[in-house]
Amino acid sequence: MLRQPELFVLFKWVGGAYLGYLGIMMWRSRGRMAIPSELDAGPPASRLQLAMQGFVTAVANPKGWAFFMVLLPPFLDGNRPLPGQLSLLIAVILTIEFASMLVYATGGKTLRNALGKSGNVRLLNRIAGTLMIGVGLWLAFG
Description:
Layout: H1 5-28, H2 47-59, H3 62-71, H4 82-116, H5 120-141
Helix pairs in contact: 1-5, 2-4
């Protein structure tokens, strides 16, 4: 890109135009939820069930455990028994994870209910579309 500044300018203009196009399409959308309001999968899941599903998914994610393998060593004391330290740290991590998933599930269900009311999705689309048009203009002319 440094050797061909014309190519960089072209990418700026194309990227800005594309973001502007997406913003205009969001403005023109009908403002309906992509997910139907009533699912045919059976009774709705409770907040606790949603939180537990998210918790199990997060705990089973190997990337999360790899992250903690890198994060935990500075907090461990090599002169003290390791199982007790790890048990305490993992208990703290799992408690925080569970609380986060509970907030996430509750917020998602609440947001879905709020967006299900008439006009709210359209308003959200227009706000996001305006932001995308603004970023597209900033990218193209900035």
